[in-house]
């Protein structure tokens, strides 16, 4: 990232979010907390903080907000960080709460679960709304409805004005959805978090976001192998393996460096201390032009499909109709 500046305490570059309250800097690598075990998550977060991670990504649907909050409290008690202000905490608004009258309440619930006074970033998780209370995935399509972007985003802006979050953004928004949002927004989104990896490169979206001052963050940049939506297409890619071998790096490091060189902030997840450390070792070297060209030619394959969120046909002709043909 051209505008990223290294944090002198951690050595990890940070980028300033354009639409935040005050000068809010976001570390360009984050730790994902979609947890399988809360006990394991607490230990992993504490280890990550020791290694220098300061950016932690959660969501109401992950079931990890409480455990992350406990880990933050323990890190403060142990003196691993001097204050909560040294951390960058993101959470997300689930579609069942994506209604104008529920947004502030949902954020307040997340803040309580995290035992915090504010978030650094609050994202709309998906560009759809669901019947309130119907939060289990896959959704019944009869419960889906187009989001009222104007009123929901106005409520997100109110969250920032109230000081409940320092910045606001979106997740899984296409160029078309972002255009719609930007046309009425008073506070533009600071971030768009999307699936991105060498096998799903999101070139069009990145080209749209950059001139609009929107930082792209990447979930599952290593393919999320082992998760319900994951794939081994990233870590087993022969082109990436070849580059890693030539450079004396891991495939994960090649992927994360490539994401970083696109001006995107990767969100990674590991409970392994060695891999946590390796994933940070991407800032003191660069891919060659030949490496980048080879990665640019990798066959593209999206992991997370819209259909994975929905269980049955409802009042819409297709999922594409609800999403305006884009995710």
Automatic annotation (TrEMBL):
Record's keyword terms, sorted: Oxidoreductase
A single MF term (Gene Ontology): oxidoreductase activity, acting on the CH-OH group of donors, NAD or NADP as acceptor
Signal peptide as annotated in the record: none
InterPro entries named among the record's database cross-references: AKR, AKR4A/B, Aldo/ket_reductase_CS, NADP_OxRdtase_dom
One Pfam family of this chain: Aldo_ket_red
Residues of the NADP-dependent oxidoreductase domain: 30-298
GO terms of biological process kind: secondary metabolite biosynthetic process
UniProt xrefs under PANTHER family: ALDO/KETO REDUCTASE
Protein name: NADP-dependent oxidoreductase domain-containing protein
Organism this protein belongs to: Carya illinoinensis (Pecan)
């Amino acid at each position: 990232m051209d505008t990223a500046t290294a944090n002198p305490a951690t050595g990890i570059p940070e980028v300033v979010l354009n639409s935040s309250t005050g000068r809010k800097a976001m570390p360009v690598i984050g730790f994902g907390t979609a947890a399988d075990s809360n006990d394991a998550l607490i230990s992993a977060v504490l280890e990550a903080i020791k290694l220098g991670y300061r950016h932690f990504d959660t969501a109401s649907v992950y079931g990890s907000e409480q455990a992350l909050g406990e880990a933050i409290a323990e890190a403060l008690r142990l003196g691993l960080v001097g204050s909560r202000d040294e951390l960058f905490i993101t959470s997300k608004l689930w579609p069942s709460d994506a209604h104008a009258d529920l947004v502030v309440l949902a954020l307040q619930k997340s803040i309580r679960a995290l035992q915090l006074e504010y978030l650094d970033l609050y994202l709309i998780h998906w560009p759809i709304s669901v019947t309130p209370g119907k939060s289990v995935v896959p959704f019944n399509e009869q419960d889906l409805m187009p989001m009222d972007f104007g009123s929901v985003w106005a409520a997100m802006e109110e969250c920032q004005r109230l000081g409940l979050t320092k910045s606001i953004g979106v997740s899984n928004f296409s160029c078309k959805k972002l255009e719609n949002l930007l046309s009425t927004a008073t506070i533009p989104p600071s971030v768009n978090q999307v699936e991105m990896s060498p096998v799903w490169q999101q070139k069009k979206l990145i080209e749209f976001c950059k001139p609009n001052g929107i930082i792209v963050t990447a979930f599952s940049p290593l393919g999320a192998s082992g998760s319900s939506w994951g794939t081994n297409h990233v870590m087993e890619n022969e082109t990436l393996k070849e580059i890693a071998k030539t450079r004396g790096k891991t495939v994960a490091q090649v992927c994360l460096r490539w994401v970083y060189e696109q001006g995107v902030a990767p969100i990674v997840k590991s409970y392994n201390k060695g891999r946590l450390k390796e994933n940070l070792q991407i800032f003191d070297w660069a891919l060659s032009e030949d490496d980048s060209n080879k990665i640019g030619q990798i066959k593209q394959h999206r992991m997370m499909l819209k259909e994975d969120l929905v269980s049955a046909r409802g009042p819409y002709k297709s999922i594409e109709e609800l999403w305006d043909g884009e995710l």
